[in-house]
Amino acid sequence: DAIEGVHLGENYSYILSADQAEYDEVINLVNTLIRGGIKVEKATRKFTVNDTDYPEGSYIISSAQAFRPYLEDLMERQDYPDQYLYPGGPPTPPYDLAGWTLPLQMGIEVEKVTDQIKVRTERVNDLEPPSGKVEKGNSTYYSLKAGENTSYKAVNQFLSTGTKVYQSSSGDFLVELSDVDALKGIASKTGADFYVSKGEEDDKEEIMPKKVGLYKSWVSNMDEGWTRWLLTEYGFDWDTLHNSDIQNVDLSQYDILILPDQSPSRIMHGHREGSMPEEFVGGIEIEGAKNIKQYVENGGRLLTFDGAGDFVIEQFGLPVRNSLSGLSPQQFFIPGSLIRAEVMESTYTTGMNREVAVSFSNSSAYSVIKQNYSGEGGEETTVERVDDPDVNIIMKYAESDLLMSGWAMGEDRYLSGRAAMIDIPHGDGNIIMVGFRPQFRGQPRATYKLIFNAILR
Q1: pLDDT for residue 184
Q2: What is the pLDDT of residue 385?
Q3: Cα 125 to the chain's mean position, in Å?
Q4: 410-443: pLDDT as tens digits
Q5: At what angle do helices 68-75 and 23-35 cross, to 10 degrees?
Q6: 220: number of CA atoms within 13 Å, CB side?
Q7: What string of H, E and C letters represents the secondary structure of the chain?
């Protein structure tokens, strides 16, 4: 039936240009499609469609194939219908998610064309290898673009072997290594591209190896598993920290602690007494919360995802609140969709586009709590004014047109313009709170760098 659609004039093609900032993610998308049985062609020369030029190496995926519905399901934006349990009642939640468009999550530009494409191609029969290459030339320093996820994998590879790595003022990485053969080996292994340095070595800051502490509750937590997968996949040095570790270990040995998405009660209290064997009950409890607080106040860095942010707000008394707390599904409902977000210029957003699609599943948004000087009788003028809280907004949800794929209700009223990621100084340390899950199921690769930069910078 899918192939029959061609005879009805419904044929079209998706073009993935080879000229994209993150070509490695283009390859990841192509390999994902191939694993699912999709036929992919690769252009062997440059070509033009609709007055747009595409370079050699661009990928072409025709809809005229048996798995067309699957191809559309991954590539097209989802438009989920409004459905309610009963008239005037809450919305009916989907079985799983409402929006998952892969190119949006991966930060990849895709052109959908109906015109005939006239170019020689070759069938991609096996998974495409990483694109890693080394630019020809001699230099003491080679650069890695911070806009490519594979660069971070290469950076960690170098740091683990004692090779000096720096970051220039542009955000790109500089590797102090002139051994071209060694660079080719890393490029082949990680997929990272190396370029001959063009003078950035005069303005650089050394990147030091980092140690990550990742909290793992005894309550099963998918988000912890995906975080652990991501840290392993990209070569970070990390330890699992269970409840007893959070309570008793000297946390100062870690450059950053990560609390994956989990409810405050699960983090604090875990499994109740009698529901599990004794060694698996309880959470971090008061002792663990105090240990984390002291760690941050003494100069540590804490990174939280989604619901874990509520835990930190409660325990640390931070001058922010989750704007979405307490809203009913009738007021606000996003059960797993892609939401448009604006990215501020920051060391935490190095290498990112100014707009991204974030994976939002009943997630969080933050508002700063400011002192109110007005009351029943007007504005108070006799009290000493205090400065607004020191809260840095790293990302915020878009002001309009928020829904990129999926289903959203009440987003314009309750989510528009709210902070999606914030950085709060606390004592000598700081707390970075991401209101969504930037590594959800390993799919939103366009927001991986929020984690990478938080660790390395």
Answers
A1: 92
A2: 66
A3: 30
A4: 999 999 999 999 999 999 999 999 999 999 999 9
A5: 150
A6: 1
A7: CCHHHHHHCCCCEEEECCCCCCHHHHHHHHHHHHHCCCCCEEECCCEEECCEEECCCCEEEECCCCCHHHHHHHHCCCECCCCECCCCCCECCCCCCCCCCHHHHHCCCCEEECCCCCCCEEECCCCCCCCCCECCCCCCEEEECCCCHHHHHHHHHHHHCCCCEEEECCCCEEEECCCHHHHHHHHHHHCCCEEECCCHHHCEEEECCCEEEEECCCCCCHHHHHHHHHHHHCCCEEEEECHHHHHHCCHHHCCEEEECCCCHHHHHHCECCCCCCHHHCECCHHHHHHHHHHHHHCCCEEEEECCHHHHHHHHHCCCEEECCCCCCCCCCECEEEEEEEEECCCHHHCCCCCEEEEEEECCCCEEECCCCCEECCEECCCCCCCCCCCCEEEEEECCCCCEEEECCECHHHHCCCCEEEEEEEECCEEEEEECCCCCHHHCCHHHHHHHHHHHHC
| 101 contacts 79 by C-beta, under 8 angstroms | no
Task: Determine contact, residues 240/209, Cβ cutoff 8 Å.
Answer: no
pLDDT of 177: 84
Q: Would you place residue 202 in the very low, low, confident or very high pLDDT band (cuts 50, 70, 90)?
A: confident
Of 369 and 122, more confident: 122
Rounded distance between C-alpha atoms, residue 258 and residue 357, angstroms: 22
Contact 270, 282 (CB under 8 A): yes
Model pTM score: 0.93
Torsions phi, psi for 292 (to 5 deg)? -65, -45
List, in sequence order, every residue forming a beta bridge with 397; answer none if it has no partner: 341
Q: Quick one: tokens of 143?
A: 């650069």
Q: What is the CA radius of gyration of the chain?
A: 24
β-strand partners of 256: 212
Record the tokens describing residue 165, joined without a space.
């790595």
pLDDT per residue over 252-268, tens digit each? 999 999 999 999 999 99
